[in-house]
Amino acid sequence: MKIEDLLVYICAKYPIPQELSKARLTKMVYLADWEACLRTGVQLTPIRWYFHNFGPYVDDVLEAAKISPFLEVVETENLYGEPKQLIRTRVEAAVPQIDRMAQSILDHVISETKSLYWKEFIRYVYATKPIADSTRYTELDLQRFAKQVR
């Protein structure tokens, strides 16, 4: 599945669009890939996840947003006046047609995270097996971790 389709779907369906920073959206895609591995044994995206200093991170999400005609990256500030990049759908963006399983996974991730403030959200991400059982600066093999849970 194309990363762009996941991003457009999440941005269109997430109830609080001003929370969809580069960091939060990237971690939501990670959670979707993790949930997909738990349910089906394979990720939704072709992303090779990496345990960066601040959790699962890759540039793939931001790069997909930047080149998408349906998304825009907006430079703004967080509550502390620090730079923040928001990713949102353009007005003319249509929600992509995705299969039922992917839709179910994305809806689940949105439902589980939409009420979480940033610190709670990060705790939720860090509680996933691939992050909890890995060390920083390593690649995360979500499929391997899912096999240990299934």
Can you tell me about this structure?
The protein is α+β, with helices and mostly antiparallel strands and 150 residues long. The chain has one domain. Helix content is 49%, strand content 14%. Strands 2-1-5 form a 3-stranded antiparallel β-sheet. The protein has a two-stranded antiparallel sheet with strand order 3-4. Helix 1 crosses helix 4 (100-113), helix 2 crosses helix 4 and helix 2 (22-40) crosses helix 7 (142-149). The model has no long low-confidence stretch (mean pLDDT 95).
User: What is the H/E order?
Assistant: HHEEHEEHHHEH
Number of strands: 5
Radius of gyration: 15 Å
Write down the domain tally: 1
Percent of residues in helices: 40-55%
- Strand order, main sheet: write it out: 2-1-5
Largest β-sheet summary: 3 strands, antiparallel
Question: Structural class per helix/strand content?
Answer: alpha+beta
Query: What is the number of helical segments per DSSP (H or I, 4+ residues)?
Result: 7
Distance between the termini: 23 Å
Rounded average pLDDT? 95
- How large a portion of the residues is in β-strands, by DSSP E? 5-15%
Unreliable residue runs: none
**Shape field:** globular
